[in-house]
Design goal:
four-stranded antiparallel β-sheet; Methylamine Dehydrogenase, Chain H; about 400 residues
Length: about 400
């Protein structure tokens, strides 16, 4: 009898880390600690694939102190732990080229949720679409089109409750195209689970989404911009948790872990985001896979594992068409608990690795160079715990404006 290891589904707008028992996140800084970003009255140009200047800096957007709440998104440089700006909102997701941030602006006490895009090169923001947030109308996750020319987003409308039964809800998927400033409703799906947009591919006009619920993935959906179906992929023991999608919106990454015959299996599986084709599967040869992400601009998989006795963290790169080429790039510290996480840096040259501690100790983050294997602590004011965050580029001009 096979039993899936209970691994909570963790895909969100950026990267959502799984909850860690008995860990109390540090309280978020007060709103006065950093400036709040003001919305520009002049719309920014339509996002597009941007040549990255030499003088850009690496930064992260994250939500401090627990679940996303209005005012929780804070922008920080990799090299400076103190946040330089605050976004009043939730659900931040970075464009494939790392030069735009889309999120839901949620003013404290307000019911209106506004889909916004921040340009870290100019410091300007643009309002795209509004949703009135109510108990029966909840803005959901956001995904970028692969050319950064559009967004697909979800709004969830729960069904009427009956006798304590969790009824199916309707999730509405809509798109926004920057060139035309047009919002289009694409598809409605009824489900008792959560439906999350994953990707939108311009060449094939295909949008991918995942349905999750108790136990992990239930189904991967694929549909055209006109709502027509392309084909779905049901869950199985090796399609348990979706963790990433390639920047070109063509490949979905899932990971798994289960016991069978007194043996522990863990690994990854990749499937097409634009049709129902399976692509590759790779099982961890040593230890247990804690987290897998795509390395930006490649089809390579970054794999954080817990190996050995006593256990330690290691980071590997799995490459090749079948992901069978394995290179260990980092041998980390002891792994006293079977949890951890990683976030691929936007330039693909490094990864942020979360090292968990026992008891109530907050996790530690390190940035690991993927070429040399050297690691350095990432020092953040208020430790980064179980919160969504992701990596982006920022220019000196954008940084100066956002600091004001």
């Amino acid at each position: 009898m096979r039993a899936l290891i209970a691994v909570a589904f963790v895909l969100s707008a950026c990267v959502t880390n799984p909850p860690v028992a008995s860990r109390s996140p540090t309280a978020a800084p007060t709103a006065t600690a950093t400036p709040t970003v003001a919305v520009s009255t002049t719309p920014t140009p339509s996002p597009s694939s941007t040549a990255i200047p030499q003088n850009v800096r690496l930064a992260v957007v994250l939500a401090d102190g627990g679940p996303p709440t209005p005012g929780a998104l804070r922008l920080r440089l990799e090299s400076d732990g103190a946040p330089f700006a605050t976004l009043n909102g939730t659900g931040a997701v970075v464009s494939p080229d790392g030069t735009r941030i889309a999120y839901w602006s949620r003013p404290t006490g307000g019911t209106q949720a506004t889909l916004r895009v921040l340009d870290p090169f100019s410091g300007n923001e643009t309002d795209l679409a509004n949703v009135t947030a109510t108990p029966t109308n909840t803005p959901g996750d956001i995904a970028w089109r692969d050319d950064a020319g559009g967004l697909v987003y979800a709004v969830r409308t729960p069904g009427p409750s009956t006798s304590g039964v969790n009824p199916p809800a309707t999730t509405i998927f809509s798109t926004y195209v920057f060139a035309t400033r047009q919002v289009s409703e694409v598809k409605k799906i009824d489900s008792s689970g959560s439906l999350i947009p994953l990707s939108w591919n311009l060449a094939t006009h295909v949008i991918a989404a995942v349905e999750t619920g108790e136990g992990g993935v239930r189904q991967i959906y694929r549909f055209k911009e006109d709502g027509g179906g392309v084909g779905n992929t049901p869950s199985d023991e090796r399609l348990h948790e979706v963790t990433d999608v390639t920047k070109d919106a063509r490949v979905i990454l899932a990971q798994y872990g289960f016991f069978s015959g007194n043996r522990l299996f863990s690994g990854v599986r990749t499937v097409s985001a634009t049709d129902t084709s399976p692509i590759a599967q790779h099982e961890a040869a040593d230890g247990f896979l804690l987290r897998a992400r795509f390395r930006p601009a490649t089809g390579d998989v970054l794999a954080l594992l817990r190996v050995g006795d006593p256990s330690r963290y290691v980071l590997e790169v799995w490459s090749g068409t079948d992901l069978s080429t394995v290179k260990r790039v980092w041998n980390g510290p002891p792994a006293p608990v079977a949890s951890g996480d990683l976030v691929a840096r936007i330039d693909g040259k490094a990864a942020y690795v979360r090292v968990d501690q026992t008891g109530s100790a907050l996790p530690l983050w390190q940035v690991v160079d993927l070429s040399s294997g050297t690691a350095a602590p990432v020092s953040f004011t208020n430790a980064v715990a179980t919160v969504p965050w992701c990596s982006f580029y920022i220019s000196p001009e954008g940084l100066a404006k956002l600091k004001k």
